[in-house]
Every structure is written in structure tokens, then in C-alpha cells.
Amino acid sequence: MTSSRSSLISLPPLPCSSVIAPSTCQRPALALRSTDKKHDPMGFRAFQFCSPRSLFKSSYPGIHGCAALEAASALREFEFYEGDEAERALERALGRFFVLYALCRVEYEGRAKSELDWGLRILISKPDGTLLIHERDKHKPRNWQPPGCRLYLLRKGRWPILMSVRRRPYEVVKVILEKVLALLVVNHIAREELALEKTEADLVSRVVEEPELVEEGLEVLDVEHPTPLGTIDLLARDRGGRLVVCEFKRSVAGLDAVSQLRRYVEQMAEVHGRDKVRGLLIAPAITSTAMRYLAKLGLEYKRLTF
To answer: Quick one: pLDDT at residue 195?
Structure first.
């Protein structure tokens, strides 16, 4: 006769903080009711569960484990709930930044239809309406809703349902929550804009606004000027009436930049004559090898920083 234990999914205990006695964080197997009779004929699944409190690491010097969690919570930086308490607190979390760990099923309806069967998942909800549903692997969520959506909690059926609604185009994501294991509500979180590195386009814009940064009397004729060989970053005319082909680099210019400038100058010289065209490499710095090659070709360099 087959033991009933053969139908259980047994997961190894999660690691616990060394400053917490095992008896305070180890939990017995947690039985979760399931309606998936085909894959779970016994009607339940068992998981070894260790309190998520033991998994938090402190950012406060000298405070560790549960003590750190309580200290941060006391400052109202975040709120943490487990089990039934987490499910009850879920409604108060709507409209705030929260992370939910739950056994759930996910249904999507909109431009198409899809469904994710019962499984343990992480849900992240943000105040701007963003909803992300993650599983174990890969960086992309299995399902998601963009900013501008509204999140509702429905308690009419057998299980509570988180429903995210997008109006235009109309899309709905329903998360049926069979068992809520943990809820983290974050009250204070960064809102910094991503600081992007400066680009060649930023240097070009500076010269367009202030051509005298390159030389007096320079007149900008075109930006991203098309040629059969590619696009010239900036085409200008100097005070002597000669065309100036400007090639920009955002960091150290090397031999490749010189070769590219040479090709553009030769292309323009075929039309206007070599004595009517100058080539100018503009960058914050240049290698010594590139500088020698530039001089050999009769081209010029202008140092310009952001």
C-alpha cells in the first residue's frame, strides 16, 4: 500500500538567521488546500515553511534578524504580516507599495487570454498602478500591468481575488489567492530618476547652441547630415566659407573615429573639392596614436567636454 506521504511535495527548510533560535522560526509543514485533483489527488500540498522574518538582513549597525525587522517596522518604514494576518492586511495595502507571497492562480483577459495554474508566486504592486507577477526563474514577470491601472480586492467568492484593471486598452489581470503566506508593505522607497550617461548627442547639442565653443565664426548647417557612407554628426561652415565635417565622440577618440571622419571628408570632397572641406574630430580626449594619424591626414582635433 502506498503511503499518503507520497503525494506531498516536500521542500527543504529555508535558512534561518544564526541569531534566532531554530525553535522560533522553524514551522511544521504547512498544508495548503488545492482544487487541482488531477495533479494533487490528495487535495493538498505540504511545504516546509520558515518564517520570512528570519530571512531579512538588517541595514542597522549592531541589529540583526528579527530585532532589525522590529526596529525598521517601529520607524514605519515598512509593515510585515504573515498568514491570516497578511490576508486581512491586504486591503489596507492597496494603493501602496507592497510585495505579496501567495499560492495563487492568475487569469488574464484583454487583447488575448491566458492563465497560470496554481503555484507559489511573488506579486509586486506599486502606487502608480504597476503590477508584476514573478515566478522562480528569469527577470521578466510572467504577467504584468503597466502604470495607470487600478487594483481592487474582491471577497465575494471562495477565495479573495486581486484584480488589476487597465481601461485603455481594456485589460484585466485576476489573481485568485488560495493562500496568502506573507505580505510586506513598504512605506518609504526611493523615487530617483535614472541618471543616464552623457551621449554624443549631448555634445552635438552644445555645439548647435554655442558654435563658438568649437571656433569663432562657425555656422551650423545641418545635424545628422546623410551621405552614402553614413550620417555626419554635424555639418558646418567656417568664417572662410569652407565646409566643416564634425565627428563627435563622447569619450576617448581612437583610430576608428579618425577613419570614420576621413571617409566623410573624402565623400564631401568629391562634391565640393578637397580644399573646400575640413575635417574636425570633437571629443573630451584622444589617443596619441589617433592624434598622429589625424595630423598625417590633415584633419583637426578639438577638445570639448560635457
So the answer is: 66
CA distance 142 to 139: 9
Residues 257, 283: contact at Cβ < 8 Å? yes
Give which of 133, 178, 153 is closest to 36, Cα–Cα.
178
Q: What is the pLDDT of residue 194?
A: 67
Q: Domain residues of the chain, as ranges?
A: 1-71, 76-191, 200-303
Within 8 A by CB and 6+ apart from 192, the residues are: none
- 164/180 Cα distance (integer angstroms): 18
Query: What length does the chain have?
Result: 306
CATH number of 200-303: 3.40.1350.10
Class of domain 76-191: mainly beta
Cβ atoms within 10 Å, residue 54: 21
Q: Specify the pLDDT at position 8.
A: 36
Q: Each residue of 75-86: b (16+ CB within 10 Å) or e?
A: eeebbbbbeeeb
Give pLDDT, residue 32: 40
Residue indicated by cell numbers 485568485: 176
CA distance 205 to 207: 5
Closest CA to 122 of 140, 99, 142, 145: 99
Residue 89 is inside which H or E element, if any?
A: helix 83-93
Place of cell 481601461: 167
Cell 563658438 belongs to: 212
- Residues of the chain short of pLDDT 50, as ranges, are 1-63
pTM of the shown model: 0.48
Rg of the Cα atoms in the chain: 31
For the chain, give percent helix, strand, coil, nearest 5.
25, 35, 40
Q: Convert the pLDDT of each residue in 234-251 to its tens digit.
A: 999 999 999 999 999 999
269-288 per-residue burial string, b: 16 or more CB within 10 A, e: under 16: beeeeeeebbbbbbbeebee
CB 172 within 8 A of CB 199: no
